[in-house]
Structures are given as C-alpha cells and as structure tokens.
Amino acid sequence: MTKDWQLAKEPTVGALKNLSAYSVLIQKLLFYRGIKNQAVAERFLHPDYDQNLHDPFLLKDMAVAVKRILLAIKHNEKIIIFGDYDADGIPGTAIIASFFKQISFNNYEAYIPDRHHESYGLNKTAVEKFAGQAVKLIITVDCGISNFEEIKLADKLGMEVIVTDHHLAPEKIPLAIAVVDAKRGDDTYPFKMLSGAGVAFKLVLALAKEGNFDLPAGWEKWLLDLVAISTISDMVPLEDENRTLAFYGLKVLRKTKRLGLINLLAVAKVDQSSLTEDDIGFLIGPRLNSASRMSNASEAYDLLMTSDEAEARAIAEHLEKQNKDRKEVVERIIREVTEKLASRDLPKIIVIGNENWGLGVLGLASSRLVEKYDRPVFLWSQNGNGEIKGSCRSDGTINVVELMTAVGPDFFIDFGGHVMAGGFSLVLAKQEELAVRLLGAWEKVSREEKIEKIVAEAELAIDDINLSLAEEILALGPFGVGNPKPVFLFRNLKIAEVRSFGNSGLHLELKFLQTNRRLVSAIGFFMCIPTFFAEKFDGHNGHKFSEVVLDPGQQIDLLASIEKSNFRGREEIRLRIVDIWHSR
After folding, report:
1. Within this chain, do residues 398 and 357 fall inside the same structural domain, yes or no?
2. 524 three-class SS
3. Range of the domain at 101
4. C-alpha angle with apex 411: 408 to 417, nearest 5 degrees?
5. Greater confidence, 480 or 582?
C-alpha cells in the first residue's frame, strides 16, 4: 500500500476575512469544513436545538404512520416494535418503547431478532409468531425497507406494518401502510442521512405533537442520549440535524437518568461527566453490539429500558464480560489464522474458516486481518442450519461484491454488501471450493492500486500542544463522518519514550519532550503487533510501521489529532497517532 501525506492548501487571506473573530488555526479548520463566514460558523459551533431540527411531518408517510399508531393506542391494539440487533436499531427500539412507557401504553412488545438464528430484518418465522399473539401492528426500526415478502405475509395474516428505516430504498418499496425513510426516491425531506434511531426519534416527535398527550415540556430531549449513541455508532454523517442531535445527545448522555447506561459507563470506567463521541464509538457501541455478537441483542435493549438498579448492574456487568469475551474470540481467530498462514506463501486473497468460530465476530476479525496482511480477507464459520456463513473485507484494491458476483450465479446461497465489506453464505458441500473460486474470480475483476491519502490540516510543533489549543480544536466537535477530527503534521519529533501496552501489547505509546520539560503522550490503538506474533516489542519490530525505527532518540514525522483524556479523574492532553514516517 502506498501512503500519500499531504498538507492542506493554505486558504488565501481574503478567503478567511469573514472568519476573523477566531484564531488563525480555527479559521483554517472552519474553512476546510466549508464554513466561510461568522454566521455559519456560529451555527456550527453552537447548534440550536429548536431551530436546526426539521419538521418530522416533512418525511413521506409520517402522517399516515402517526395516524395508525394513535389509532392502535386508542383501541389498545397490540404493537410489536421490531428493531435491528445493532447499536442503532436497539436504541431506536428503546426510543419508541420509552415513548409508549411515558404515555402509559403497555400493550406493546419489543422484539430484537437473534443474530445467529434469524436473518437481518423482518423474517417470516417471527411474523407468523406475532400473528399467533394477536398482534395488529408491527413497527420496524432500522430495517424493513427491503422486506417485501415478510410484509406481504403480515398483511395476509391480518397485521399491518409501518416501516421506519434509513437504508437506501429500492426503486419499488414494500406495500406497508407507511414507509418512513428519507432515502425513498419520492421523499423530499431536507436531510437524507438520519440514523435508524434518528428516524424513530422523528416518529416520537410527531406522535407527541399530534397525540395531545400530557407530556412534561421538553420530555423528548431525554431521548437524545439514545439518538447520540445510534448516530455516532452507525457512523452517519455528523452534518445538518445529525450534528445537532449528536451535540445535544452527548450533553444528555453526560447526565442520563437511564440506570443501564449509568452502570455500563461505570463498569467500562468511563467518566460520565466528560464523556465524548470517542467513548460512544469505542466503548458504549461495542458493548451494546457485543450482546448480539456473543448471545442475544435483547439484553442490550433491556439494559436501556430497565428501572431496576440491581438488574441494570447485572446486565452492565454481563455486557462487559461479553465484550471482553468478544475481544478474546477475535484475538483467538487472528492467532489461528496467523499460525495457518505462517507455513505457506501468502495468497492474493485470504480465505480461511472454522466451524467453531463465532459468526458475530467474523467481520471484526476480517478487518483486523486486512490491516495486518494488506489484502482482502474472507472468513467463514457454520450456522445452526449446517450452512457456511461468512464475512469479508476489502483492502481497498477490489470491490468484494463484484468479486463474489464474478464467482458465478450458482455458487453462493446469497451474498451482499458494498465495496469494502460484505457477507455470504453457501452450502457446506461447496466449502472446499470457496478459496479456489474466489482466487479465480480475483483474476477476472478490475483492481486498483491502494493509495492511502492522508491530509493534514495544519503543521504544528510539539510545544504548541496545551489545554487552550485543545479546547479550541475540540469546540469543533463532535467529530465523526462528515466532520473528521483535524489531523496535524509534526516534523522531526525526537522520541523520548516508547512502549506497547494493553491486552497482548496491542497499543502503542510514544512520548515527546517539550522545551518546558513536560512530556506529551501520543497513543496509537491497535498499532502494535500482539506478543503472540513477535518475540517482544522493540523499535525495529512489533509495530505496524515496519520501515520506521521507534527507539528513544530516533526522529520521526508524525500525523496526529489532539484530544483530551480523563483517566482515573486526571485530565490529560495527548495526541492520537494517525501515521508515522521517517523524518524527512
């Protein structure tokens, strides 16, 4: 893989004249985000909850959905909230359930499918089960837009379906009584990139507005903790109203009343009062997702909904254990793959499986192996029906969906995904052909050289790093897709200290000395090779920067972002490593 470091083109003085209220560095960072004047900058830096959110009734079919749900509430019809099993669908399901709970409507059930035994989205077995429970209405969350047959079956069995989703809609949509999805071709909603839980939140806003319920003023804002978790975990762009939802959602999360989240943060050793988007992305989201990956996602839903302190603590501790188990399972898979590959030449595509590997973690392991071996990876296991199921990840040189298509129409039971990631299934008898067929397809499809372009928005010196600068930069947050953390270039840094740390020595820490004798730490997660791959970490091996020596006294160039950490109550300004190269 070729890396291309670039320093962003300096804006002209004239281009920044309408941003003169801010420091020169912040002017540049705003400019690079398309912000050219102070009025827009102030809206960006200080989102207005009341002004920035669009009317939920602008969503196509929202009025129909609201009318049908209010009718069900009036007649006490049984409702199923059918949510996806990830850290978007689970909070979205909890948002609607929290609304029902608040208005004292109790004739509902939240249903989160089992990732290991049920397919994504609505499935016929579940629909038939609901019919036997006298269900009259199904509301989907973060799924349903492609469930044509399942919705048709529900109708046949006397149930109506309201789809709330945020995934790309097909040209024809299912024949549900309402399909609320901004990505519908005929939807004119001003913003298309809400999360699944974001759409669920819009539904609740519309229900609260239309239903004339006796709700406390501003009650719905207490749902924003769940919206923030989904918006950041599902990596939707933090633009338009998503920025507002995430901005205020983080504020709510820092003082959430949900006992489950309070306990989850406690067992994860997260300081709730200073929680950031990184804590959602790296700590909260993975722990919620661990429920579906390791057992059943309904446990994560129960965590978000419980009002019992003992139950909240028990679930939080179990999710913490499952998340730890999930990490260990991923490490075990990586270790097994590494051992298998050590005795042979590396193939163009890594295709390896084991019937005992957990299906829920194959995507995570594939991503890690792509980072290690810099080539596409296909991992498989076996499901309860005796079929081979797997996940794949690209290294950026190839479209994995095109690759699986080139294998031929008769090979897979099904497959799908996008350019960089996908999933597949096939009958057990074809498992031994999988690697051969994929390698054959690799010869046919187009490939391109992988060039990783990394743009630094400014050049800084290590002496520039202080609390004041960090707070200026962090005011541009929350960061994520659509508003990436600013990356800075540091030249000719002399390493003062270096170490690996964490489970199996996976993480890297460098320290640099400022002229005031203060050490600045730079952290790189998953940038070391675990100790079961290398004898011991040293500056020449044991890290992902194979052409760079990381020894005290060595000089390097560094790309990094700036962050505040709060470890055991101690606030620290540090760098987050993006890339390292020889000093030039």
Report:
1. yes
2. strand
3. 56-223
4. 75
5. 480
